[in-house]
Amino acid sequence: MKKTAAFPGLCVLVLAGCIPLPGQTTQDPPAPETSRFQRIEMFEIDPGRQLSWISTRESRPIHEIINPFAIRKRARTYGSLYEYHRNDNLDARNFFDPAGRKLPEYKRNQFGGSLGFALTTRVVLFGTYDGLRINRGSTLLSHVPTPEMKRGDFSSIGTPLRNPFSGEYFKANQMPTSMFHPSSVKMLPLLPDPNSSDPYRNFLNNQPEIENRNTFGGRADYELSKESKIFANYRLVNGDGFDVHPIPAFGLSSRYREQRLTIDYVKNFGPRLVTSVQAGFSREAGTELSPQAGKRGLLASLGIAGLSTLDDLDEGYPDFEISGYASLGSGDSPRASYSNEYSLELGATYVRNNHSLAFGAEIEAIQINNDRTGGLRRGVFEFSGSYTGDAFADFLLGIPNTADRGVGSDRADVRRRSIRAFARDSWKINRKLTLSGTLAYNYFPFSHSIHDNVTAFVPLLFEPPLDGRIVRVGSSEAHNLLPGLKRGHAVYTDKNDWEPRFGIAYSPQGNNRLVIRASYQISYSQRDPDESLDVLGRNYPTYYTERAESPSSQPVLNLSNPFMTAVPTEIRIRGVDPHMRNSYSQEWQLSVQNEIYPKWNIEVSYSGRTRTHAERNLLANVPLPGPGLLQSRRPNPAFGRFSILTSGGSTSGNSLRANLRKRLSRGYSVEAGYEWSRTFSYSGSGEPANPRNLRAERAPGNSPPQSFNLNFIYDLPVGRGQAIQAAWAGKLIWLFEGWRVSGIASYQTGGLFHPRLSGDANNDGVWGDRPDRIGRGNLDKSARSIDRWFATEAFVTPPKYGFGNSGRNILVGPGRRKWDVSFIKRTRVRREGEILELRVQLFNAWNHTNFQNPRSTVGTTVFGRIFGADRAREIEVALKYTF
Asked: Are strands 570-571 and 543-549 parallel, antiparallel or unpaired?
């Protein structure tokens, strides 16, 4: 049989342990009767490290597989039209939507089409449009103060209310309105009254979320010759939306625009060598604004001294975090980011005898311009209830626990350039054994600023010395302290990122019915540019945050002038370890795949992974727990808390998978899979309980440890040539034939979470304190409810100025169960190739309630209660016409 440039050589999966099957050669694949296990899918790893599915069943020439939009020589015009529609008239009620009340408004329309022209046998043009319009009512529950509370009447709460200025208790929990702070009074009109009879989930916001998107795409293919092709892709996305806040007065509106252009050139030098070049450019721009943006003088009208805005878009309300109640404020508005990305990829594949060699390289450059995160200049105030016994009462008196503000301009302009190159060989030793190996090198420098505004605290230690100082990187002062660092740079480049990968596939019988695979790899990751934005050009003195913190024993902060009180304001420092390394992962896998029956196969696999030098933020210059003002107790009282970005994090995990698959034949297919996984890490959301004992933060990840998935397709055997002929239908047979039922079922155990204390209970300036655990905490399934998901009495406040013994991620949240079912009717319209498709799709078809995690702040009235659920059943009707 004549040899061709088949594509098995690029089908190497060292990442997941899948490599070309033993016995597979550069010849045409064997006939189905000699190789029943012909649909084993594998990954293609391209020079850009993007993974795409292909199949060993492919037998096209290599240039057509690299170019999936091969030139069509038959139809000169082809395309499709479609419309998908959902609305609340067909949907079920969310668990927390009140019975008897109209469902929240919900309209979802997705529509569009495609059109292609084969102008000649060598030129093809193809265009697409997709529109999305979503108006989706929310079901956001929160706890808001009652009208009586807003008048100072706290008789409904069980806790005695204390006057923090006299030390006595308010009589009958009645607080005189004359004690209300003027700034707090001005915020009260923004707080809605309860609209629900539930005393804890007493406010329901059904305000709609908005999402509008228009996506345009175009492609042009030109066959220069039988050996070479060039094709170009362009994509444009415009969109806007509105994200809802639990309080209707707030929220964020967004606008974004994305563009992507790629040009590919593929050259086939005979049946053994194929080369490719791709040049790409993309641009993204996006903004987020609060409803208060542009209202000049709004912030100043509150009368809180020390707060200011850069411009009118920065206007809005401060953020008031009130423990146990809904928060108030204009959030992170304004946010803006503008980025450009340039890329060039080169690739070559050479097939000879039993070897398939692949080489590639990629150069990438990223620009981020005028990135800005607003909100902090307007201030953030936290109220924990430490002084009166109720956080809202503290808010009315205007006595926060902490006050934060941003100073300066937080605009950041950063750049990053990276290079990656690799060489790979897949060696088919014989019909039973195939080996593969890859060696790649990465040059992944940390992003840098284009301005001379990067500063560093030297030496950057957990307890910064009194003689430490801030220097501008690249200056003469920093030359001896940070030798070799250029202006605008904060981290020395890690130049040792080599990636070896090895894989083996063994078929004991040589017919691919039973295949054993094993692999090992090391892979490096680039640092996310977003990590660098906070430490490049957003540090003292260009931009920094100040915090005033009051001890929990007495209120010394006041909203009138929170940054000029008896508490000295701290200057916070955000830094990065100049010797930070790029993170790398080690992954290994062993799998066994066996065809137990024609078109039925089962796979069992084990995989493990460790990640080293992962990102971790260290909190430094932290005082020991104790009484008194924070600032005077810090190791270096000239500065506030340090947040240091380091590469000291790590994760490790293992997983077991079992998968049963029946390929589509005789009108049906089934795939079922079960996975057990366990991950441990030192990282977690929020601040650590004890910055001096980070080992106590090591805990299982919060992802569900077990999951089960079932996918199926069933073509109803009704119609001409089917098991059920339905001759009685006569000319109406088209109504009954062409129906397909498909579904996706997923089951997950609950994710993990942990309780926390409100405020800074031990007075060390870190708000990640956890309680003492005096019981199991988790309840049996039969004892759980939305009002008591776990045993709240198992967690108590630790002794004063102490650390709690409760660990991270010790509680189990609600699991998830979901069935999505589709009914699809395909009808031939006139000539071959014209198809009309009707779809009726039920999402969460059985309307199972999937609860969200409960509130986890100890001491609040909402502790242990669930406030939300995922969306109920939704029904979508779709119509698609293909020609």
From this structure: antiparallel
Q: What is the 3-class SS of 372-412, one letter each residue?
A: EECCHHHCEEEECCCCCCCHHHHHHHCCCCEEEEEEECCCE
Nearest to 221 by CA among 120, 82, 362: 120
CB 298 within 8 A of CB 316: yes
User: What was the pLDDT predicted at 730?
Assistant: 60
Distance CA 636, CA 570 (A): 11
The amino acid at 410: D
Instruction: Return d(Cα 535, Cα 576) in angstroms, integer.
Output: 7
DSSP structure string for 142-199: E----HHHHTTB-TTSSSPPB-TTTSSBPGGGBPPGGGS-HHHHHHGGGSPPP-SS-S
Structure tokens at 581: 């390394």
In this predicted structure, what is the pLDDT of residue 409?
86
Q: Which helix (H) or strand (E) holds 228?
A: strand 228-244
pLDDT computed for residue 537 by the predictor:
76
**Strand, coil or helix: 859:** coil
Distance, CA of 781 to CA of 795 (rounded, Å) = 19
pLDDT at 873 (0 to 100)? 94
pLDDT (0 to 100) of residue 552? 80
pLDDT above 90 (res 582): yes
pLDDT of residue 102: 86
Q: Which residue has the higher pLDDT, 3 or 707?
A: 707
Pairing of strands 706-715, 739-748: antiparallel
The residues, ordered by sequence, that sit 6+ positions from 360 with a Cβ below 8 Å of its Cβ are 46, 47, 345, 346, 347, 348, 421, 422
Pairing verdict, β 228-244 and 208-225: antiparallel
Please choose, from the candidates 35, 41, 29, 38, the residue with its C-alpha nearest in 3D space to the C-alpha of residue 4. Answer: 29
